[in-house]
Specification:
The chain is of the alpha+beta class and 124 residues long. The protein is built from two helices and six strands. A five-stranded mixed barrel has the order 1-3-4-6-5.
């Protein structure tokens, strides 16, 4: 059976990224992203917010840590991954996004632009 697992998100970070490294010295950043949806129901606008956990690896994690902060907009491409575990006899699960690509969105400050040029581009 064929399957396709791809997601594209445009949202705002809910917290500052925190860079950490695995035992194999691979960069990792876990961060939350808020995605707002606004639509009309019964003649009135309704706004809903979805919160998703996103994980960046490698150079993309380093760029996310350097250029993103709480509230910053970002375009994220990746795949969904379900994690399952058991805690206190209860089965638990969650779905998160494993990011493959990050596009920085929004205005840049002068020194951020210089950092982006030094890093090679604004898309990782």
């Amino acid at each position: 059976m064929a399957s396709y697992n791809r997601v594209v998100l445009l949202g705002n970070l809910t917290a500052d990224p925190e860079l950490r490294y695995t035992a194999g010295k691979k960069a990792v950043v876990d961060v939350g992203v808020a995605i707002n949806e606004r639509y009309k129901r019964d003649g009135e606008y309704v706004e809903e917010v979805s919160f998703l956990d996103v994980t960046f690896f490698g150079r993309t994690a380093e760029v996310a840590n350097e250029f993103l902060s709480k509230g910053a907009p970002a375009l994220i491409e990746g795949r969904l991954k379900q994690e399952r575990w058991e805690k206190d006899g209860q089965r638990r699960s969650r779905v998160k996004v494993i990011a493959d690509r990050l596009t920085l969105i929004g205005p840049r400050q002068a020194d951020d632009n210089e950092k982006a040029v030094a890093a090679g581009a604004a898309e990782f």
